[in-house]
Design a protein that fits this description.
Layout (H helix, E strand, L loop, with lengths): L1 H8 L40 H14 L31 E7 L2 E6 L10 H16 L5 E6 L14 H5 L6 H24 L4 E5 L2 E3 L1 H7 L3 E5 L3 E3 L13 H8 L3 H10 L3 E2 H7 L4 E3 L2 H16 L3 H15 L3 H15 L3 H11 L13
Parallel strand pairs: 2-3, 3-4, 4-6, 5-7, 6-9
Antiparallel strand pairs: 1-2, 7-8
Bound molecules: ligand LTDHYY67.
């Protein structure tokens, strides 16, 4: 029961494996029953150690969502967390999460010894992570990168054998249904990036293979280092890419012929061609410059009105998938509410005073 409470109390992407005890007694309200953030429910923990109280108090202060929180400071201390079996500073086994600067969340693919190949945990954890980020008011922009010598080697060919090669089911219909479920589930792993209202900047170094291309085409801004290469590898392993590349890449790269060539031949595309074709917007000399560049772009986004930024992302994606007339119609409906934000007045005033948007304080969204 308590483990259920703590699991729901702290966003997973900011959480690491907590001891079974939760610290609920530390919370109190003036107008409700003692030891509770509620007015109609009293919550208590009959026994707990002081150590647990101190540790959990720190975590709760940094990460607890509003519905279980009572007047806490708005600090997020992601770096203080660690797990025994995953990367440092992360509640996940395949992702390392950090906050390199205010309002920026860095999600690093983190299985460097396997070239960040996408195993079953990865497909699940990305969904959990981005769903948390979507709700995290302290995050305005996300940077995605890969740990180790390469961005990602794509689908984990060892781990996926069961799901893909030996799907369960008593007959063809049931096998097919299970496969459909699997593919749909994996599609969500990258669709969550697109659904996340916070812009996602991806920084690619080294190889970006198969599922890696699916991932980056769901991101909003793609940057790479000079050593990066991209490969729509799926035909080489006997399948049609099924988690986003065939749907999104044609909307990213202008040339349909080039998309077809890449997807049908699995040839590698190197950084310069990725830039000239529009797959990436900038190429940096090396990984260090790439990460500095990605964080700089993220910083520019984070400094602007989150109402404006998130509305821009949502409407760009909507317009990509609709006619101009439909996009304009949607935009008008969007801005009939969003133009009422204080952010317009604050930003316009800063512009009139020739000040950077970085000097303006915007409320959380
Ligand atoms: C429902 C389906 C959903 C999604 C489908 C997606 C489709 C795809 O992603 S298709 C693409 C699949 N990936 C590949 O085909 C790439 C395979 N890997 C390679 O070709 C090479 O590893 C390399 C990327 C060219 C790098 O070569 P190298 O620098 O020589 O390193 P290695 O020694 O080969 O690898 C180091 C280490 O990583 C393991 N590894 C690499 N790739 C994968 C992978 N895709 N799956 C699992 N493991 C991988 C490799 O085995 C090595 O591990 P050791 O334990 O050290 O042996």
């Amino acid at each position: 029961m308590l483990s259920l409470i703590i699991k729901s109390a702290i966003p997973r992407y900011l959480r690491f494996q907590l001891p079974a005890q939760a610290l609920i007694r530390t919370m109190s309200t003036s107008d409700g029953p003692p030891s509770s953030p509620y007015t109609t429910l009293a919550i208590s923990r009959p026994a707990e150690s002081i150590q647990q109280r101190v540790m959990l108090s720190l975590i709760i202060k940094s990460a607890i969502p509003r519905y279980l929180r009572f007047q806490l400071p708005a600090q997020a201390l992601i770096r203080t967390m660690s797990t025994s079996d995953g990367p440092p500073s992360s509640p996940y086994t395949t992702l390392a999460i950090s906050r390199p600067a205010e309002s920026i969340t860095h999600v690093q693919l983190h299985r460097p010894e396997k070239l960040n190949a996408m195993n079953k945990a990865f497909w699940r954890e990305m969904v959990e992570c981005f769903n948390e980020i979507s709700e995290d008011k302290d995050c305005r922009v996300v940077v995605v990168s890969g740990a180790g010598k390469t961005f990602t080697a794509g689908l984990d060919l060892m781990d996926m054998a069961g799901d893909v090669l030996q799907p369960e089911g008593e007959d063809a219909a049931r096998i097919a249904w299970n496969l459909r479920r699997t593919v749909t589930k994996y599609q969500e792993t990258f669709s969550v990036i697109e659904k996340c209202p916070k812009p996602v900047v991806v920084a690619v170094h080294g190889a970006c293979i198969g599922g890696g291309v699916d991932l980056i085409t769901a991101c909003d801004i793609r940057l790479c280092s000079q050593d990066a290469w991209f490969q729509v590898k799926e035909v080489d392993i006997g399948l049609a890419a099924d988690v986003g590349t065939l749907q999104r890449l044609p909307k990213v790269i202008g040339s349909r012929s080039l998309v077809n060539e890449l997807a049908l031949t699995a040839r590698k595309m190197y950084a310069d061609e990725a830039k000239s074709s529009g797959l990436v917007s900038r190429v940096f000399a090396d990984q260090e410059a790439l990460m500095a560049g990605a964080l700089e772009v993220a910083g520019e986004i984070a400094a602007r009105s989150p109402v404006a930024v998130q509305g821009t992302k949502l409407n760009l994606i909507y317009s990509r998938d609709h006619s101009v007339a439909e996009g304009l119609h949607y935009m008008a409906a969007w801005n009939m509410s969003m133009l009422q934000t204080q952010d317009v007045m604050k930003s316009a005033q800063a512009a009139m005073e020739k000040k950077s948007p970085k000097t303006v304080t915007f409320s959380k969204l």
